[in-house]
């Protein structure tokens, strides 16, 4: 591989930007970085990230592991390329008349959709600031939401981090729930309904003074159908995050010299 254009970028990042020349030896026509990444994603989507290995990907493509290494030097590079490819979503057209709250709602939902489509995404540890092209496109889309707001660049990036972190945390919870349900867990195990009677006996007011009334009311296990005024925990949490940003904007406005 020709590393002259890589500079101080990690090799996997340079590969994502197309800054590395393809190998001069090996199966040039039948093999490409795109095909390798697509094959790895297909395995991860179907069987989970733990099933992805260089040998497994090479075998799925009908090539030797060594031929794969000529294109992608390590599994870490492959995982980085998979993450970047997973971020390849349709960039929404800008709509006039949308306020910043609705733009941020859509940004969080679109980010969460990436993680729901590829549940393995959050299994890859964060290793640094996003610097691959498709990942940066998502950051750019997020920054659209702050356009026109009285924020400096540091505040804008902190807000995008806040929104992205919320989407990631919800994505992890949803992934775990989906996997548990596929493994045979009942929906009542997540709402707690399956254990409502037992909890009312085990949770005592002396040991759990604040939890006890919540359990006894049925709110902890969503026991009383139709009584919960919060139909969607994800949307409720998102609105509270946006409330916090709105409050911050109002404080900044009040601090402006008059």
Describe it.
With 258 residues, the chain is mainly α. It has a domain at 11-86: Homeodomain-like (Arc Repressor Mutant, subunit A, Orthogonal Bundle), CATH 1.10.10. 57% of the residues lie in helices and 0% in strands. It contains twelve helices and no strands. Helix 2 (33-47) crosses helix 5 (75-86), helix 6 packs across helix 8 (153-182) and helix 8 runs antiparallel to helix 12. The longest helix has 30 residues, at 153-182. The protein starts with 10 loop residues before the first helix and ends with a helix.
Secondary structure blueprint with pairings:
Layout: H1 11-16, H2 33-47, H3 54-61, H4 65-69, H5 75-86, H6 100-117, H7 133-144, H8 153-182, H9 187-191, H10 196-202, H11 211-217, H12 233-255
Quick structural overview:
Residues 30-90 form the HTH tetR-type domain. The chain has 258 residues and is mainly α.
Q: How far is the N terminus from the C terminus?
A: 60 Å
Average pLDDT, to the nearest integer? 90
Approximate strand percentage: under 5%
Query: Strand-and-helix sequence, N→C?
Result: HHHHHHHHHHHH
Largest sheet geometry: none
**What would CATH call the architecture of the domain at 11-86?**
Orthogonal Bundle
- What name goes with the CATH superfamily of the domain at 11-86? Homeodomain-like
Give me the Rg, rounded.
23 Å
Q: Care to count the β-strands?
A: 0
CATH topology of the domain at 11-86: Arc Repressor Mutant, subunit A
Key features of this structure:
mainly alpha; Arc Repressor Mutant, subunit A
